[in-house]
Amino acid sequence: MAFPSYPSLPPPPSPTPPPPASSPPAPDPPAAPPPSEPSAEAPHDAAEPYDEEAMFAIHVEHLALQQRARHEDELDEDARYRLHLLTRRARADDEPSPPAGAWFRVVAVDHAKGKRAEGQYFHFFAREAEAQLGRAVVDGMVAELRNLTSGEEGAVKLWRRSGGGAEGDAHGRWQPERRESRWRRGDRLQIVGEAREAAAARRVSLEEALSEEVAREVLSLLRPADAMAAAAVCVSWRRVLRDEAVWETLCRREAAARRRRGEGEGLEEWGEAGEPEGAWRRRAARAAADDAAVAARWRRGEAACVEDALRVHKDSVLAMQLHEGQLLSASADHTLAATPLAGLRAEASAAAARQARGFAPRRAAAFHGHAAAVLHLHADAGRVASCSSDGSVLLWSLDGGALLRRWPLRAYCVHLAAARLYCGGEGAEPLRAYDAASGAAVAAYADPTPPLGVTSSLQRSSELLAAGNTFSASQLRAWDLRTAALTHRFHLPGASKGARCVLLLADSILVGCANGSIVRCDLRSGRFAACLAHAECVNSLHLHHDQHTLISAADDCLVKLTDLRTLGTFSAHKLKRVVYSAVSDSERLYAGCDDGVIHCFDFSIQAKRTLERRDLHAAGGFTAAQQRALNEALQASRARQDSRFM
C-alpha cells in the first residue's frame, strides 16, 4: 500500500478518533476545508484497501515529531531517527522503484539494541551483491552503498562469511566502525561504488589535461631538485622526464641563471651536447646534491665557509642590495658601488695566496654624484635610486653608471618599482610616491597622528607599503599601496627606542629596534611580540632565499641567522666592526661594516674546495684522514717505547 505524502501542517485543534465500525457514518461537513489543507474525507483508490485508523495514527505521529524537531535540544536520538525514517519512506514511495537486480535485500540483522528491530550488522546473500557489484565479495572490502529503504548512503565494510550462524552467507556494517548502524530486515540495498569509480575514471587530471609539449616546457623551467621531486610524485611527469633533452634544457637554463646571479658553476663545468645517455640527468642530480650540501653548510656556520674581505669603500657601508648578479652598496664616502659577483672566488683565492688581508674587486664600478653620505639605495630593472643627506635623490643606470635623473628631495630611504619612486621622509606625510620619469608627485601616504619622527626604513609588497620611524615612542605603519589609506598602526613598547629597520612578510612585519629586539607584528590579528635578538641596535633585516631564515645585523658586531619557524638562532658570525647592512644569496652572505669593508662568507662548492686546500696546506701536505692515521701511529709508537722502560 502506498502511503500518501503529508505536508507540514500545524497540529489540529482537537483531533477526534473516527467512530466505531458499528456506528452510522458521520454526516458531511457543512463546508469544504480550505484548498491548502487536505480533506479528511478525500477519496482513495477503491482497489487498494485503506486502513483509516492506521493512517491517522501515522499522521498524528508524523506531525508530533515534526513539531518536536523544532526543539533539537529536547529531541532524543530515537525520535530523530524515527522522524528521519518517516520522511525517507514518504519520499521513497513517491520515487520509482529501481529495476529488478539493481538491489539486494537484507535477510537478517544482529547486534540489535534492546527489543528494537534495528541491528548493527546486516546479513545478505553474497551472490545477489556480486551480481550487482561485478566481482566477488571478499573479507574486509569497502564499497559505497545506498539504503533504498531509509535513504542513507555511505561506505560499508563487507565480509564473505555468515557471521554468527545467522541467515545469509555474508554480512556488513557502516564504515568507519564508530558510525552507528541501524539495519532492518527487508531493507533494499544498492551498491553505487561502481558508478562513482566510473565517474572518477572519466575525470581528467591536471597532468592528463596538459599536453606533453606544455608539460615538457613547464618541467624544464624547474630547478634540478624540484624536477626530481616532480618525477617522484607523478607518473606522467616521470615519463616526460625520461627524455634526456628535457634535462639538457633544464641544466642549460639553470647554469645560465646561476651565471647571471654570480652563483654556482657555469655552463662550461656542466658539460656540452653530445654527451652519453643520462649525462645531463646525472649533472642535474649533482646540482641538486650540491644545493643540499650548501644548505647544510649554512647551518654549520663559520666552520663551513670561507671569509673574504672586499675593500670597496673608504667609509661606512650603510646599505646593500643584490641585483642582476651584482652587489650594490651605498657608503658614507659619498659613493655607490656595483661589484659583479662572477669571478669573486678566483680573486679571493689569488689574494689569499699572496697572504693579503682582503682585496679590492677589479671590476667594481663606483658611482660619483652625491655631495654627502649616501643613506640608502634600491634597484629595479637595471636602474638604481639613491638618497643622500645632501638633500637629493639620484637615479642611475647600472649599464655604464650613467646619471639619469636628479631631484632635490629630502629622503632618508627610497624604493624603486617600475615607474614609481617611493621616498621616506618625515612629518605628517612620511611617504610620497613620484613618477620615476618626470619626478612629479603622484601620491602621499599620510598619518598625522603623533609621534611623527623620521622614516628610517621602507618596504613595499604588491599590496602594502610599510615604514618605521626613529622616534623613541616608535610606531610601525602600513598603507594600502593603491588607495594610500592607512591600514595598520602598531605602537611598539617604549623600551624599543625606535624602529631602525623593517621587513615586510606575507602576513606580518618584522621590526628591528634600537634596543636590540626584533618585534613581529601580525597583520591579521593586530598583535605583536618582541624577542631580544641582539645586545645593541639592530641595523638590518634580510630574508634568505629559502624564505624561512632571517639574517639580522647589529651594532654588537654580530650577524645572526634565525629560523623564523622556531625563532631559534642556529648560526652567528662575529666581526670586529659594527655591521650596518647584511644581504645574502643562496651561496654567500655579505656584511657591510663601518670601516667600508664588505665581509663575504662563502658557502659554495668552490669555497669548500678552497677549505680543503687550506687544510691540506696547514697539515703539511697530508689529508685529514692521513693526518689522523699519522697521529695514531705516533701515539702507538710512544706507547711501545714507554712499555720498554716499565
UniProtKB/TrEMBL annotation:
Keyword Repeat on entry: yes
SUPFAM superfamilies reported in the protein's UniProt record: F-box domain, Quinoprotein alcohol dehydrogenase-like
Organism: Prymnesium parvum (Toxic golden alga)
Pfam families the UniProt entry points to: F-box-like (PF12937), WD40 (PF00400)
Keyword set, alphabetical order: Repeat, WD repeat
Annotated F-box domain residues: 204-250
Ranges: WD repeats: 367-406
Gene3D superfamilies: 1.20.1280.50, YVTN repeat-like/Quinoprotein amine dehydrogenase
Residues covered by region (Disordered): 1-50
Pro residues bias locations: 7-37
Protein name: F-box domain-containing protein
